[in-house]
Fold these 3 entries.
Entry 1:
Amino acid sequence: MRNQRILGHFTESAELKQKAAKVLAGPIAAAADLMFSVLTQGNKILACGNGGSAADCQHFAAELVGRFEQERLPLPAMALTTDTSILTAVGNDYSYQDIFAKQIQAFGQPGDLLLAISTSGNSSNVIAAIEAAHEREMNIVALTGKGGGNIGAMLSDSDVHICVPHERTARIQEVHLLVIHCLCDGIDAALFGEDINE
Ligand SMILES: O=C(CO)[C@@H](O)[C@H](O)[C@H](O)[C@H](O)COP(=O)(O)O
Ligand SMILES: [Zn+2]
């Protein structure tokens, strides 16, 4: 019985990844191209999300600042989820909704990119971050699921939306991590001059 539950998780995750590969390959390639051009123009990537998505932001920033699979120069990416003094001060003095938006107002520059991660597409602090990034004339790559929620509806044509076709948070997060590794690989491939359209 317990093993059946475990097998169920593996099967559902594997089947979703196969299905998502078909619908997400185009938007992932577009996001990797956008990130490459942002980084090579001297701009940076800021990332925000809650819970497991906060961990994804940190994972992504670590792979850009450190490395993914190949040795290269450090790339400027920062998770907005890690400074507990900023998070508690803004959460306490303003509201939890403002914890990422304030940091975007502080650090975001036109031409920078916000990686916004929300499985529901409805987290209000991620929505506020996207609004702040739009005001700052930043690019946006949004990782969502469940049809994209309110975030899907507020993105502009120049933003990239990677929406996992599933309703279950855990499954969506598992695909988000795979997307993040595809983005790291796409950026590295472009930096090393490989033909990423092959
Ligand atoms: O990892 C999980 C569930 O798998 C949780 O920590 C989850 O990330 C949190 O409930 C988040 O607050 C959900 O926010 P969101 O993905 O809907 O924006
Ligand atoms: Zn989780």
Entry 2:
Amino acid sequence: MIDFSSTLPGLVAESPDDPVRSGRLPVGVLLDHLQVGLVVLDEAGHVVGVNHQAREMLELPLTLLQSQPPIDDVVRWQVERGDLRGDVSHILQRVWHHLRETARRGQPHVYTYTTAGGRTLQGTTIAIPGGGWVRAYVDVTRHAQMVRYLRDSEERFRSLTELSADWYWEWDAEGRYTRLEGRLIREYETAEMFLGKCAWDVPALNRPRPEDWAPLREAFAERRVFRRVELQRRLRDGRVVWFSISGMPVYDADGRFTGYRGVGRDITRRKEDEATIQRLAFYDSLTGLFNRRAFVDRLQQAQAASARSGEWAALCFIDLDNFKDINDAYGHAAGDRLLQTVAQRLRDVVRIEDTIGRLGGDEFVVLLEDLHADEEQAAWRAQHVAEKVRAAVETALTIEGHEVQATPSIGITLFRGRDEAVEDILRRADLAMYHSKSAGRNAVRFFDPAMQAAVVARATLQRDLRHALRDGELRLFGQPVVDARAQVVGQEALLRWQHPLRGMVSPADFIPVAEQSGLILPMGQWVLRQACAQLAAWARAGGERAQWSLAVNLSPRQLRQPDFVDTVQAAWREAGADPRRLKLELTESLLLHDIEDTITKMEALAAQGIQFALDDFGTGYSSLAYLKRLPLAQLKIDRSFVRDLLEDPNDAAIARTILQLAKSLEMEVVAEGVETAAQFEALREMGCHLFQGYHFGRPAAL
Ligand SMILES: Nc1nc2c(ncn2[C@@H]2O[C@@H]3COP(=O)(O)O[C@H]4[C@@H](O)[C@H](n5cnc6c(=O)[nH]c(N)nc65)O[C@@H]4COP(=O)(O)O[C@H]3[C@H]2O)c(=O)[nH]1
């Protein structure tokens, strides 16, 4: 063994308290217990000291060291054993170069190498001020293994992302993309699209609204793992692809949240396959309409929706009367074309929200929802649509050079709620369709006979009403409007229909039919002309009647006519009536449509001197803001409030409020439906100035 203590003058501390110097701890023992291997070279490069650790790390035999060999011999020995690889002279050259350089510059030289035994050592050469060197060795085998392991792992990860269709991503603590790796990301050239941005800042076709991103943002805010978030995106080249991303939060060694990492995947193929499956499973391949399965499903949903809304829905069953004949005569291809044409015509005539299906063969079905809360009204609307369908299907078409005409037989049934089985609804509509077949085909029939009767009655009424106008069966009645002294100051014109068989028909029965059929327009014009003629006649007659006003009810449809202002002007001009005596009564429902257009028209007429009254006030939706903007001269308190005025404090309060409101808006108020002296008195006390009702006079021929 070499005596270390005597060979290390420069390495031993100078302090008098030093346990080594003081002799309390032998230097050799101390150095042998270090975790660092030490090799000491004298100024000539002889190995003059080696501690226990160095011998073990470098695996140098004692026999080699005992003679204090030159470093060159040790290096040669190491090359022979395979510790150092390469040409000996070249290695020696390098060794001496480093030794000299450390001495010259006074800086340690650090290097790493792996022994034949597989140890990785980090050596540090330090020059001793008095001459010679110390080489210190630290075993870094484990660290080197770790580095190698990490490098391998990184390479494995890279080959994975290169080879697979998935990619890897990282977000920072703000949710911004900081890293995107993978072949597809490069191919799609999407990295620039994302880097520095949050996922929710890059547009996705399937999530157009900010709230669509709420679940992902919440998961992020709550540091939750999220899986398979599907995003449809448009690439730079215009291609539309589907991505799916999954991610998990990442924390640093101190448990601080640093962001997210995860994988992305292209799921476009899967999405396309799903869409195809969906199409095959739910749509009829010939026409693109819903197939039976999907339609039944919709029908169930419609039942649930109608139960919630209280609105009636209808199922129309459509069967082509002569499909078989056309098929037999012109072949299947022609038959298919016909079915496709019928499907298209159905699409053209029903609303976008209605559901159309083909149950098979030439059987089509149409589902109409939200028709009306009133069954009869709903039936009427369903009938209206079915008639449109019938007319559309019936239109002739040319198939392969032949003109063919397919007529439909249509059955309708109404339903609301989900108390009955879907199959029962279908059966009812099917049965109704057979009724229309037996009624001579190319017809529409209801399943319910009462409904059928009601619809027929209404259709008859509509037809008769058309004749009424032509044949002069309409009459204009008037009901007096009085002031607080019960003096007549004007009249309200009310329409009557003198039916040749039914007698006098109430407007409550025929106005809705006229509204729906559009007949209200010529009828309204007739009323206007009559009213103006009446005003002119009163003026001519002189006396107090010359001062009377005449109020005419307007349908919202009339006011929506683009030429409405001109029509009214023509009416009073042609009759020679004073427009200041003409009052036009509107209902609040009018305010639901294009309010700006209404105001413009009203102002144009008001400029001619015509006055406007708001009818049935209090029963509708009037917004006070609109009320202020409309050029109104009068509010009419609806008769439902007047009726119970004396018994119901709420009604009295409403009447009083309307009066106060009108006063502040500088409008007159007419109380409608005054039937008793007590009501008259009460209203007068509240400050009402104008009255109308049976108490003063029933409507009578003008
Ligand atoms: N219970 C009760 N009722 C009273 C009393 N005083 C008057 N009435 C009735 O109340 C209705 C007042 O007309 P409205 O509210 O404008 O309601 C009118 C109006 O909305 C509409 N209408 C009538 N004529 C026309 C018209 O020429 N054009 C348009 N578009 N609608 C009209 O038909 C509705 C019903 O008219 P009518 O049957 O004539 O019914 C009239 C009238 O007869 C009363 O003291 N007690």
Entry 3:
Amino acid sequence: MNATRKVGLVGWGAIGRVVGTALAEHRVPGAELVCVVDNRPLGEGAPAPQLSFDEALERCDLIVEAAGQGVVREWGERVLASGTDLLIASTGALTDEELAERLLAAGPGRVYFTGGAVGGLDLLQAVRALGPLDEVRLTTTKLPATLEQPWMDDELLSRLRTATGPVEVLAGTARDIPVRFPKSTNVAASVALAVGDLDTVRVQVVADPGAHHTRHVVEASGPHGAYRFEVAHLPDPGNPATSQVVPYAVLRSLAALAGRTGQIL
Ligand SMILES: NC(=O)C1=CN([C@@H]2O[C@H](COP(=O)(O)OP(=O)(O)OC[C@H]3O[C@@H](n4cnc5c(N)ncnc54)[C@H](OP(=O)(O)O)[C@@H]3O)[C@@H](O)[C@H]2O)C=CC1
Ligand SMILES: O=C([O-])CC(=O)C(=O)O
């Protein structure tokens, strides 16, 4: 029988609260919440002790990152080098290819990525074994306020704020888009991780004041076939940049890591 996974959760926000509560209520057989790490003092708000990152590494064998790309950059290698596994939500950090290579080579802990807000990544990863895809496109449509960034000039901000219908905010590749929208377009890096190339994945970011649902459309084609995955998620009410489904994707990843039988892999 597998030992119970001792989980340290980094980030007590839209994703972390749902994941941490489910773990504390023993809703993931084979996994227990040992501690929470967050920038803010959580007081009695968290269902497990709030610890420093170093303390978490001493007590846990699996760290769940639900905090931001900076945590992956700052802590990823140390987590893995300590022998602790790491489940990453902020896949956008992997647009730094040197970091990505180091994380994939690090150990003895193992690094995993949650599918997060997009679907079809398992199939795209399988298709890759048949040969490279010719074309991969991701179109992400979100509420304008969730896409505002400090680097935007007044003209672009005004275009976002006065939009009455869908407007393209930026187009690029999975190499540059998750850097520009670090809390909102990790999905682009996730698609790139599945297909194995940042530059092949063309990304269009669209702001739409009518986007009651966040949409991600992944279209891919190659000599072996054509693939299209479209999702429309309700945003998290407290943090509309994040889709409501994301913590449940993390919980599903955790269930697989905890060895639950009957999982679709
Ligand atoms: N793969 C995917 O599909 C998706 C990935 N994500 C990723 O997940 C991240 C978390 O999402 P979400 O829960 O919605 O974000 P929230 O902003 O709601 O919560 C993040 C929490 O983590 C804390 N935090 C940030 N940096 C650190 C740090 N260095 N050390 C400790 N705590 C920290 C934040 O505190 P403070 O606010 O004080 O910084 C905040 O409490 C996003 O930033 C994004 O990168 C999100 C959605 C989808
Ligand atoms: O939750 C979503 O729909 C996507 C998201 O924020 C991200 O990819 O960072």
